[in-house]
Amino acid sequence: MMFLARPINIVLASYEAQTIPDALMERFSSAINFGAWSIRWVGALAAGVLASAFGAVAPTRCSPGRWR
Fold this sequence. Notes:
Layout: H1 5-19, H2 22-38, H3 41-54, H4 57-62
Transmembrane segments: 34-58
Keywords: Membrane, Transmembrane, Transmembrane helix
């Protein structure tokens, strides 16, 4: 599913650029960035849970850059 993240971001960014007025674009972008940065800890938490449950190899096998 991680291979879909980049195309979805491109589609959503272009949709936002077309629908949101220029006067509100900065505020909207700030709100989106705040939301994205405030939930980044979930990935680290999930990796820690996987490591404690299945060993340190499980999070590295689930990471998006490793498809072996």
